[in-house]
Request: fold
Amino acid sequence: MSDEATIRAALARLETVHDEAGLAAWHRDVLGRRGSLSEALRTLGSLPESERRQAGQRLNTLKAELEAAFAARQEAVRAELLDHRLAGEGVDVTLPGRRHPLGGLHPLTAMIREVTDIWAHLGFQTVEGPEVELAKYSFDMLNIPKDHPARDVWDTIHIESDAAEITLRPHTSPMQVRIMLQQQPPVRVVVPGRVYRYEAQDATHEWHFHQLEGLAVDRHITMADLRGTLAEFARQIFGAERKVRFRCDYFPFVEPGVDMSIDCPFCSGKGCRICKYSGWIEILGAGMVHPNVLRWVGYDPDVYSGWAFGMGFERLTMLKYGVNDIRAFFSNDLRFLGQFQRARL
Ligand code: PHE
Reply:
């Protein structure tokens, strides 16, 4: 075979190489120490002097050509291999990502924050207190002496019934006493927290729920402050168009005592199933702090006066979002809880 033909065959074979092993084999066969080119170079010596120079030049040109062809093919094969690998490892960047489930606030937690924020703007500090509480604070110092029938209104869960009488607090009102024992007037606080009652459960009753206690004590505080402040709170949480209504109610630790209702936000007071066709929905109990309570914490009732209120968070949240069963809050059902996650974190 002439050199030309050998070389052309080598070039043609190079085109069929598609991997590193093929490249190495080709290089060995053609350009290697024992390859066809080296062989041709070795035969130069046997040529007559006159032809040797020319033949040598031609082989050198061929060598350069083969080396260039090899380098080009090597690059092409590597590019092919890379393409192939990328195609195999393909990532579809248009696929939607996997969403990591993020926790969110429980609707009651969100409501507690919203409400305490409103009170902060009205000048009330938020404090918390113990859930395991002495009857002394839950009842005695709130003007509900032992064996007083009013004590039965709060169906208390007892932890120890001996002289100390340790209970799960049935309301947040004991914090009124604890706060006043700790500081001098003026007092402006709200107390969110969990309370417990020994009660049968149904759509509107739970054996544990959340309350907000409020207390303002200072010189010259009157019923007008109670009325104005609570009405302002109702408007902030339920909308500027809400009307409020106060009626007489009885709580041993206030005098006079009232309850406050808002006109039904579902029917604007016309009467519907939710307001039991009365047009009004009761949302809290309140009143002027009883002089006995002030006296027993060491405040002079002739100098200081105050008002207090107590409100249930579950009821408020149910009204605000149209939840019809209080048990849903404590069911740990993500289908229920997930509905409150919008932009609330
Ligand atoms: N503690 C009362 C209750 O649980 C509510 C209340 C608080 C009423 C403060 C008047 C003043 O029913």
Remarks:
- Residues 171, 173, 251, 254, 285-287, 308-310 surround phenylalanine (CB under 6 Å).
